[in-house]
Amino acid sequence: MKIIEGMKKIKDLTKKAEDIRAKIGLFCADLDYETPMYPDQRKEVDGWLQSHSDMLKEILSLRLSIAKTNLATNVDIEIGGKTVTKSIAEWIHRRRDLSQLELTAWKKLSDRGLQEGGLASTSNPQVAGREIKIRRYYDPKQRDEKVELYTSEPMVIDARLEVVNAITDLA
Question: For the chain, which residues make up each domain, given as ranges?
Answer without folding.
Answer: 3-72, 74-167
